[in-house]
Amino acid sequence: MSMDAITFKKRTGKKPPVLIFSFSQLVGLYITSSFDIEIPVPEGEDAVARRISDLLGSGADQEEEAPS
Questions:
Q1: CB neighbours of 67 closer than 8 A, spacing ≥ 6?
Q2: I need a labelling partner for 67 at 20 to 30 A (CA). Which of 1, 12, 26, 35 fits?
Q3: How confident is the model at residue 58 (pLDDT cuts 50, 70, 90)?
Q4: Centroid of chain to Cα 56
């Protein structure tokens, strides 16, 4: 198993901001499976979450696109 990325996803509507940890694991000889773990960021801790993302991951912020 390996960690591929850590990203910070900004608040969207009523959903809180989250840190997304992306992993991949080998489940067969040549088969990989990817999965994400989303950790909600407590109120007022956005700066800390962004710093964690910058230090450990890609540092990219994600924003969900508005529905068309």
A1: none
A2: 35
A3: low
A4: 11
Give CA torsion, residues 57, 60, 66, 68, to 10 deg. Answer: -90
Tokens 């994600």 correspond to: 62
Residue 56 has pLDDT above 90, yes or no: no
Summarised one tens digit per residue, pLDDT across range 9-54 is 998 888 899 999 999 999 988 899 999 999 999 999 999 999 988 8
Q: Whole-model pTM?
A: 0.73
Token representation of residue 46: 């956005």
E strand segments, 10-51 = 18-26, 32-40
Cβ-based neighbour number of residue 43 at 10 Å: 8
CA angle (15, 49, 60) in 5-degree steps = 85
Domain positions in the chain are 2-62
